[in-house]
Design brief:
11 helices; transferase (chains A, B); Ubiquitin-like (UB roll); arginine biosynthesis (chains A, B); EC 2.3.1.35 (chains A, B); acyltransferase (chains A, B); homodimer; EC 2.3.1.1 (chains A, B); 6-stranded mixed β-sheet; alpha+beta
Chain lengths: ~400, ~400
């Protein structure tokens, strides 16, 4: 049993029913004992879907399946298991995926191409597909509208707390809801950031527009978050829109009627991404890194991620040490333009280095106090132009080693 | 006091005199108490030099100085201090560097442009240059030909053991010697790998040819070694050739007369690079990673370094866990071509995965025994073409966190 992250919220936010979505979960015994490990989301007919998948070249068979069917733009079911990622399982793994998809399609009553699937857990072991098939009747019976809590728990692996978020929003004057769950705490890096996240809305939005909104929001949320720079073979994020809210379908992604919906979608994704970073394996501090003064926003993000992924920066924060020299090192290795003699670094809002050297007169007391806290802010200006970016990460502690030196056993 | 690496050799190899080189060291009190921290190498007139420097964009003032004078191709002195890297020290740092250079030039009796300099230690604090100037008379008095042991110890920072290597070699029929020292244990990554290494030979080799030999040998040694993926602002490697051996100067880098010399230079650099990886902060295992079957050698090296830099792979090895799934993950995120369904992975010579899936019948006993040892071999074939590469790294343990969460204090 893992020690819960100090950032674990006292309880999950309450998520109400989202019209057109039913959720179910059962204990299929895939790997874990005495906990649910199989999750099914049933979506209303004509539900539109968009997804973002890992770019790993050794991606799992379930990810390959989603790549194949997502362009269709509709789905009726999402089936997810924890405990086994069905990754690097050869041709058997492909067969397993297709059997799982067929089983969910039969249960929901749809074509296989309308089923999305995700598996998370150990890599390289065959998934006992017969357990999934055997569990399907009970899983179907368990479907109900207010099952968010169980769904969030079912998809967990090394997570120390379930993750969910909700927004009441609108498209034009029509009230719309967005709810989502996420899991992930290791192998967290851009490209994608979390291992798994599933978002549901009752909005009526055609798949091409849904895709466009989702891509932009993921670039500003999960793709700004990193734990250890490693990329999973299974990362999958799906957004399903049932259309039950009854709004008039937008005809383009930048329609003014979508402004509020997009803003709420982005803020919900940021909330989920931050929950994942806060559950980073062994995390004791949540770190926000702002980079400004870069050649452009893209360069700023590269520099920010170089800082966020540096083991030396992350261990310094774990040690509550204002070692800004390591921040400078990470700026230097990022490979993007930076003016060494105009660089400034601040921690907790206090400027520690300016114009390329330490500020000898700075007051260390508030910085020390800031570093003893759980939420750390580092800001760097690299003195070139106006590009800026913000990314999130956590510190690197003994807990990370404890978890990862003995995960498989 | 750091716990010595389990790989620390019982003693330094004996390095005999190298004609045209004298070494000295003193305790200047720059940061450490009761140990030598200032090193000077005096080179015979007309000594030829080549160097490889960090590509960090926030490199230190001493690195900037070397970049400026190395193209001249000759040097009479190399001055090195530990305890303070004189990096990110603004215009003051530039003045400090020039004062140190001037001081060494006066001591040895040469032009400032014939002095190379390196500083290692804390970033962002002003280096007390007056202590260096005050120590210069004693430093000059300490120069002698057989001072390798002291030199190797003087340049250490978080190193747990001094590092030196030697080769008796030849150019044509003429006996030639190469000796070198290195330091480095954190911020170890390609581009460059070690923080500091200084190599000396009595060979007669013009600077342009020396550069060409050195670049090739560094690409195959230090640039194949990584500890934590971080890149120092101070990485510096210098090769000085005094010409005292009396061989006829080669006229091109691929002259057959240089074959033996080059092979011994490369093997010496590999030995030093491996010593640095073996002293990786907190290292308990030394890991050799071979990648074959890649699109070309460059792609193979990218994949090998992706494996070597993966915190999840490094923690699995620390935990003596044959978690080859993480190796596959690291192959996938490298971004180079790999055929997931032809991938094979072996550990300690035993094939664990083949044709994209686990070998169910493999004998786990020899793999477990191998992982309990200190020298770990991982081999991956990615099934595309014939590109191959070998890199070295160490595992990621609690020791790394201990050292880096509290280095500055």
């Amino acid at each position: 049993m893992l020690k819960p992250s100090p950032f674990a919220p006292e309880s999950l936010p309450h998520i109400p029913e989202i019209a057109g979505v039913r959720l179910g979960a059962v204990a299929a015994g895939i790997k874990y004992k005495d906990r649910t490990d199989l999750f099914l989301a049933e979506l209303a007919e004509d539900s539109q879907v968009a997804g973002v998948l890992t770019r790993s070249l050794t991606r799992s068979a379930p990810v390959d399946w989603c790549r194949k069917v997502l362009p269709g733009g509709t789905a009726r079911a999402i089936l997810v298991n924890s405990g086994n990622s069905n990754a690097f399982t050869g041709s058997n793994g492909v067969v397993t995926t297709e059997k799982m998809v067929a089983s969910a399609a039969a249960a929901v009553g749809c074509a296989m191409e309308e089923v999305l699937i995700a598996s998370t857990g150990v890599i390289g072991e065959q998934l006992p597909v017969e357990k999934v098939e055997a569990a399907m009747p009970d899983l179907t019976k368990s479907l109900k509208a207010d099952n968010w809590d169980l769904a969030a728990k079912t998809i967990m692996t090394t997570d120390t707390f379930p993750k969910a978020a909700f927004r009441d929003t609108r498209i034009g004057d029509i009230p719309v809801r967005i709810g989502g769950i996420a899991k992930g705490s290791g192998m967290i890096a851009p490209d994608m950031a979390t291992m798994l996240s599933f978002l549901f809305t009752d909005a009526n939005i055609p798949a091409p527009i849904l895709r466009s909104l989702l891509k932009k929001a993921v670039d500003r949320s999960f793709n700004c978050m990193t734990v250890d720079g490693d990329t999973s073979t299974s990362d999958t994020l799906i957004l399903a829109a049932t259309g039950k809210a009854g709004n008039i379908a937008p005809t383009k992604a930048d329609a003014p009627a979508l402004d509020t919906f997009y803003a709420d979608l982005e803020s919900l994704l940021i909330e989920l991404a931050q929950l994942v970073a806060k559950d980073g394996e062994g995390a004791s501090k949540f770190i926000t890194i702002d980079v400004s003064g870069a050649e452009n926003d893209r360069a700023a993000k590269v520099i920010a991620l170089s800082i966020a992924n540096s083991p030396l920066v992350k261990t310094a924060i774990a040690g509550e040490d204002a070692n800004w020299g390591r921040v400078v090192m990470a700026v230097g290795k990022a490979g993007e333009r930076a003016d060494r003699d105009k660089l400034s670094v601040s921690i907790g809002g206090v400027t520690i280095a300016k114009d390329g050297e330490g500020v000898s007169s700075y007051d260390e007391a508030p910085v020390t106090a800031h570093l003893k806290g759980m939420e750390i802010n580092i800001a760097v200006d690299v003195g070139i132009a106006n590009g800026k970016a913000r990314v999130w990460t956590c510190d690197l502690t003994h807990g990370y080693i404890d978890i990862n030196a003995d995960y498989r056993s």
